[in-house]
Write a structure and sequence with these properties.
mainly alpha, 10% strand, 10 helices, three-stranded antiparallel sheet, 339 residues, rod-shaped
């Protein structure tokens, strides 16, 4: 099945979450009553007991009400998960950030952490021409221009590009979180239903549920740029793609956890408890994953706003940019004269 087909199927399954959760609660009531020889008439919708004694009807009704009350709230476990953010809503932001990366990227084409191609930009490519044009220029101003502007330029633009790609990864990580939350909550309601359906069997089958939200996110400290001014940034993104997408050799994993397994099965009340625990664990997974993204973004903000790093993100303004026609040929502060 293609990735697009999988996404379409997940969207369809997730759209039925509320309906499935209501059905799960009803199934628990029906299974419990069935164990007490009280079944639901498919034609009338009324619960009945074979050979029902009219004198016992009030007692049966009381039992039915008690069981309904006992399992009341099972469907509500899923209510907070019914209107989750749509992973597709992050696509436009990711495209815009990737386009910015393309403007800044002055090197070869590269990829974002979700595999999208970032082409080398042409707007800043003229710096190579500038370097060629000043090869025969010498003197103090020439050396100052080389040291303070031309030489740091590749590293500065690489640092800028890396910061933009780090932001792209954070947005992509958000989309990954909600894709996995949707998949996990749908798995929970469907596998809980399977466990309830098997609860009345002689050997009830247990079902394993894997919570993958926290495990789907990895944060890595890396130094994609090269040169003396290269900075280490924290990249966060989908676990399956981020490590391989980052250039550079120095990589330190800051956040990486495994999936969490929860077993569903046993008595109906045990299954209810397991479902509640799984939903709470899923909330914890969301908090863990969001904390990893927040930590990565805050770490990069700290790097970018550190006064010591300003010259590594913002290119120095060439002194020649402020020269006039009368001062451009100054021997010491200008370009000098041709003799």
């Amino acid at each position: 099945m293609s990735a697009a087909d999988e996404q379409g199927l997940l969207l369809q399954r997730y759209g039925q979450l509320r309906e499935k959760s209501i059905r799960l609660e009803e199934s628990m009531v029906e299974a419990y009553l069935k164990a007490g020889n009280i079944t639901k008439n498919s034609q009338t919708g009324r619960y009945e007991s074979p050979g029902e004694n009219p004198n016992l009807v009030p007692l049966i009704d009381q039992e039915i009400d008690r069981v309904h009350e006992s399992f009341s709230g099972v469907a509500d476990i899923f209510t907070p998960f019914v209107a989750l953010p749509d992973p597709a809503d992050f696509r436009d932001a990711m495209r815009e950030i990737a386009s910015v990366a393309g403007v800044i990227n002055t090197g070869q084409s590269s990829k974002t952490d979700d595999g999208n191609l970032v082409l080398g930009g042409t707007g800043l490519a003229g710096m190579a021409d500038v370097r060629s044009l000043v090869e025969d220029w010498s003197g103090y101003a020439s050396q100052s221009f080389q040291d303070n502007f031309l030489s740091p330029w590749p590293t500065i633009t690489a640092n800028q590009s890396a910061m933009v790609l780090a932001l792209h990864g954070a947005v992509e990580a958000e989309a990954t979180i909600w894709k996995n939350v949707r998949a996990n909550i749908v798995d929970l309601v469907e596998k809980a239903q399977h466990a309830v359906d098997a609860a009345g069997e002689c050997s009830p089958e247990q079902v394993a549920l894997n919570l993958t939200v926290a495990a789907s996110i990895v944060s890595v400290v890396a130094t994609p740029a090269s040169g003396a001014g290269a900075l280490a940034l924290t990249f966060v993104g989908e676990a399956l793609s981020i490590a391989s997408s980052l250039p550079g050799e120095k990589k330190e994993i800051k956040h990486s956890v495994g999936s969490q397994e929860i077993v569903l099965g046993g008595s109906l009340k045990e299954i209810e408890t397991q479902v509640r625990s799984a939903a709470e664990a899923l909330r914890g997974e969301i908090i863990t994953a969001e904390a990893a993204i927040e930590a990565a973004v805050n770490a990069n903000i700290a790097v970018m706003t550190d006064p010591a790093n300003q010259s590594r993100f913002v290119s120095a303004r060439p002194l020649l940019a402020d020269k006039t026609s009368s001062s451009i040929t100054h021997e010491y502060n200008g370009m000098g004269k041709a003799y």
